[in-house]
Amino acid sequence: MTDRPFITPETKVGALLDAYPELESVLIELAPPFRKLKNPVLRRTVARLTSLAQAAKVGGIDVRDLVMTLRRHAGQTGSEVGSVDTDAHQEQQAPPEWVDPGRVTVRLDADTLLQSEALPLEEVTRRLRSLPPAELLELRSSFHPAPLLDTLQTQGHRTFCTPAGDGTFVTFVLPKPRLST
């Protein structure tokens, strides 16, 4: 089929699965967090915005391996994966000075939100609107929330994500400064 796109790190997961529905099982085999693609709300929303580079971070796998495996299963040739900004998704070693667990006043669980068919990004964004500037939001998840982090940073919020040691991740969010009126 000639209208199926060439798979790159920038390919959105939703577009990939629309063009190559047979690759869903390949994605799920590659990383357990990809099982969440079975959630229809996640599939309709987050998968549309998440690139394979971001998905690789969520799944804890190398983006080059992910893309090459998907290409092989799709019957595509070409060994050049494309440029991937690996520094953009590197986890920070030490928390920045603004991360203070004592300042957390809102705690959310991304997995619980997804199970109830709510979107973590929407809930985080809603809660940040009313969060005082000196307070933090904490989001726990069983996956590295790379697309959420990218979106929040683009909106001007500060984020810091770190492994919790129990296989989960803790993300701290400092709301962007509000303009005084």
Q: Keywords, please?
A:
alpha+beta, single chain, 181 residues, Translation Initiation Factor IF3, 4 strands, elongated, four-stranded mixed β-sheet, 2 domains
Write up this protein.
This protein has helices spanning 13-19, 24-30, 40-44, 46-49, 52-59, 63-74, 110-115, 120-130, 146-154, and strands spanning 104-109, 136-141, 158-163, 169-174. By secondary structure, it is of the alpha+beta class. The protein is elongated and about 55 Å long. It folds into two domains: 13-88, no CATH class; 101-174, TusA-like domain (Translation Initiation Factor IF3, 2-Layer Sandwich), CATH 3.30.110. The longest helix has 12 residues, at 63-74. Helix content is 38%, strand content 13%. Strands 1-2-4-3 form a four-stranded mixed beta sheet. It is built from nine helices and four strands. The model is unreliable at 82-92 (pLDDT under 50).
Overall body shape: elongated
State Rg. 17 Å
Which ranges are low-confidence, i.e. pLDDT below 50, for 5 or more consecutive residues? 82-92
Task: Report the sheet with the most strands, covering strand number, pairing sense and barrel closure.
Answer: 4 strands, mixed
Order of helices and strands: HHHHHHEHHEHEE
Structural class estimated from helices and strands: alpha+beta
Distance between the termini: 56 Å
Strand proportion? 5-15%
Q: What would the average pLDDT be, to the nearest integer?
A: 84
- Domain unit count: 2
Number of strand elements:
4
Query: Helicity level, as a percent range?
Result: 25-40%
Number of helices: 9
